[in-house]
């Protein structure tokens, strides 16, 4: 840091003009300041926060259902005294829409709370449930606003939104990221080992297979196991599903997850 109180320096130097030790302007102090390469470093840091949390999430859209799978917590910081059932990144937003938040746990919980309020206001105003794509757009708009004002911190979380479109009667899966945009997916992964899971999903879903409800769940779990290079226990993951025949969003029980893990192990042996 440059010494203060020089005779020729004004004490009112703007913080955005301050320099680091290498005399290079510090473009990462304010989210509203672009670096010469066109990047907003605070947004990049939000992306890094998502990966540094140490958890990975996977979502898969089947023919008549959609499933998301997430780790309950990072295994590297496992606490033997912790009740894992109390740790969740998967939130029901409405009766038919769910959200899986990957990244900083506090940001994810705050996002889920705001999303519930927003969907409640939407239902009160229009008389029907907010569709998944409309919720995804609202989350993306919320994130983008944080890149416009220095008083707002970019959210260190990527949200997966899943649900059934009531008009099209098709499953929907979206991701909403800290940069402020959302994308629809056949399958997606975010977090620490997202690249490995995406490579697995690209190979398995290359020819657009028509996945049944059990196959959709097992595909998502298999992708997560492949990315983490280990066999997971039912208590270490949480699985959220919505299906066309029963559009209510719900979390699978430990017993149901264990049945799918057994089916995956049997398919590996055959």
UniProtKB/TrEMBL annotation:
InterPro entries: Ntn_hydrolases_N, Proteasome_alpha, Proteasome_alpha-type, Proteasome_asu_N, Proteasome_sua/b. Residues 1-16 have a biased composition (Low complexity). The proteasome is a multicatalytic proteinase complex which is characterized by its ability to cleave peptides with Arg, Phe, Tyr, Leu, and Glu adjacent to the leaving group at neutral or slightly basic pH. The proteasome has an ATP-dependent proteolytic activity. One of its GO terms (cellular component) is cytoplasm. The 26S proteasome consists of a 20S proteasome core and two 19S regulatory subunits. The 20S proteasome core is composed of 28 subunits that are arranged in four stacked rings, resulting in a barrel-shaped structure. The two end rings are each formed by seven alpha subunits, and the two central rings are each formed by seven beta subunits. The catalytic chamber with the active sites is on the inside of the barrel. This is Proteasome alpha-type subunits domain-containing protein. Belongs to the peptidase T1A family. Keywords: Cytoplasm, Nucleus, Proteasome. Pfam families: Proteasome, Proteasome_A_N. It comes from the Eukaryota. It is found in: Cytoplasm; Nucleus.
């Amino acid at each position: 840091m440059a010494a203060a109180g020089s005779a020729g320096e004004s004490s009112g130097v703007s913080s955005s003009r301050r320099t680091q030790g290498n005399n290079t302007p510090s473009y990462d102090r304010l989210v509203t300041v672009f670096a010469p390469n066109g990047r907003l470093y605070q947004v990049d840091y939000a992306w890094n926060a998502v990966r540094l949390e140490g958890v990975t999430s996977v979502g898969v859209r089947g023919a008549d259902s959609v499933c998301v799978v997430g780790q309950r917590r990072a295994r590297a910081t496992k606490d033997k005294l912790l009740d894992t059932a109390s740790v969740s990144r998967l939130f029901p937003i409405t009766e038919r829409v769910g959200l899986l938040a990957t990244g900083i746990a506090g940001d994810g919980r705050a996002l889920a709370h705001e999303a519930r309020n927003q969907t409640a206001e939407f239902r009160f105003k229009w008389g029907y449930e907010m569709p998944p794509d409309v919720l995804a757009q609202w989350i993306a708009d919320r994130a983008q606003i944080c890149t416009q004002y220095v008083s707002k911190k970019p959210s260190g979380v990527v949200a997966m939104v899943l649900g059934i479109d009531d008009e099209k009667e098709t499953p929907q899966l979206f991701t909403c990221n800290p940069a402020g945009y959302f994308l629809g997916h056949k399958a997606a992964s975010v977090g620490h080992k997202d690249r490995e899971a995406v490579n697995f999903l690209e190979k398995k879903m290359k020819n657009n297979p028509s996945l049944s409800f059990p196959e959709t769940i097992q595909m998502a779990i298999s992708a997560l196991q492949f990315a983490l290079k280990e066999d997971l226990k039912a208590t270490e993951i949480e699985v959220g599903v919505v299906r066309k025949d029963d559009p209510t969003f719900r979390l699978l029980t430990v017993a149901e997850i264990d049945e799918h893990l057994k089916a995956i192990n049997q398919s590996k042996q055959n």
